[in-house]
Amino acid sequence: MKKSKQILVTALSSVFLLGALAGCGDPSEQKGKTNIEFWGWGDDAEVQVFTSLVEEFNAKHDDIYVNFTKRPSSTYSVDVLKQLQSRKPPDVVFVGDSDIKKFGSTQLDVLEDLTPYIQQSESIDLSDLWEGAMSRFQFDPVTFENSASAPIWGLPKDLGATVIYYNKDALEAADITVVEGKTADMVPADEAHGFYTKNGEMYFNNSIAMTQTELVQLGKILTQEHNAASPTEFGYYCQWWFNFGWSVGGDDVAYFETDDPAYNGGYYEFILDDNAKNFRVKDGEQISVNGNVYGEGELLSYHDKTALSSEQKAKCNELPSMREVFDFWVSLATGKNADGSSNGNNISPNPNDNIDSTMFTNQRLAMYVEGRYMVPEFRRDCSFEWDVAPLPIWEGGIEAGHSGSMCISMSKNSKNKDAAFELIEYLSGPDGQRALMTTGFNVPNQKSIANSDEFLVSELPPYNNAVFVRAAQAQRGGDWTYLPDDAWIEVWAPTLNGDVLNGVLTVDQLFAYYQQSVNDKLKEYTMKK
Q1: Dihedrals φ, ψ of 317, to 5°?
Q2: SS (H, E, C) 416-469
Q3: Nearest 5 degrees, angle CA 226-CA 182-CA 130?
Q4: Domains of the chain: residue spans and CATH
Q5: pLDDT digits (tens, 9 = 90+) for 246-276
Q6: Tens of pLDDT along 469-498?
Q7: What angle do CA 65, 66, 71 make, to 5 degrees?
Q8: What residues pair up with 255 in beta bridges, in sequence order?
Q9: Which uninterrupted H or E stretch holds 257?
Q10: Distance from CA of residue 500 to its chain's centroid?
Q11: Is the pTM of this model over 0.85?
């Protein structure tokens, strides 16, 4: 599910607001040098960092001069695409993960494949970049399938991994002890839970992911509808189903290869309503399905799980279907089953409550799932003790979730490509990532920096930064990164984000209304024109 427009604007308002300002540069400094035009956007602190980085880059290069132009966030995507299609495009641009497949498609063809430049780079080590970030910028421009062998259309500028932001004061007011920094291998087996009760006392461990059952138990304690003594009105809120769906191997889209001449090799189908059980290979086992080998702990793909023999199923743990998990996620806001009957899971606000980040900062909401980009706002606005914890997972599943990211790309029509790439590798390399990290806004795109004390140890919240590292390792782009645009999502998501989560329509009705029209829209993406 894509973010609703209201939530997206509110959640990112403190991060990406700026006016349309032209780049500036002293003409005398540019004379006799290769001039590089660089377009970007960001909040004041982020823009200041990039301005400083550009100044440092210029000072280190006698032959290159970079002019940094910051554009307004509200029109950036439209503005930069229009300029990339012009006769005088910027050489280097920021591109969001929701736009990269449109910009990199053969239809628009405005970006340069960075693969040969990266192969020759001495400062960009692909093995040190988060796979979940890189994968969304590496894809086939015709089918849009992501793969490690596909062209690379940008290098990550940042990574906004999603986690639970929790109100520590609220948990303690509810007589819940917060256990900090102790992973499952550091505690007894009966304490290896995200939320548990022992000897009559309740505990929340901020380094162990809660299961769906533990989440509801804790959420009810912190939701006034279930517990009148709760210090917060609502216990938990997450606007995405991704962490639960992906933790069992589910998704909302699957790709089907075909010889049908009407398509460019394949087509996509909507599978959020998939009722087939998912499977994960048991410890110590290995199976091969359709030529694909799965080791212990691995989830089977959508296509392979239906081909399992009885013998192979015996080597796997059965997990719920995507539809079962999606129904549960919806019920966190509605407290209803798919058919509209009550199940009492309601621990989250629904759209009628006008959800935004102030629910957390004003202490109406105890646990709020959002990206790393919320850190500057929460440091500024929270008057209580807070920290972060891993996203919940389905019992028996794997850690999963999505992260936001933006990349730095090169115009295909740049006349100074070698110089442009020098800037890209500088910004995406160690110098740029260390500088951007000081804003609190992002997880560094390089594992080595993220795993160092530079990032992990902080004098300001959040203190449990190891959770962001785990999230960065596991997370990938949201479903809005799957295809060149989100038109297929907009067919059904507005109803989900409105009437369904408000309890007016059931999940059954959602799929009855939209299943076929979503599939029709999906097939347009790879249909030959």
Answers
A1: -95, 135
A2: CHHHHHHHHHHHHCHHHHHHHHCCCCCCCCEHHHHCCHHHHCCCCCCCCCHHHH
A3: 100
A4: 5-159+405-481 (3.40.190.10), 162-238+348-389 (no CATH), 279-318 (no CATH)
A5: 999 999 999 999 999 999 999 999 999 999 9
A6: 999 999 999 999 999 999 999 999 999 999
A7: 155
A8: 268
A9: strand 253-257
A10: 23
A11: yes
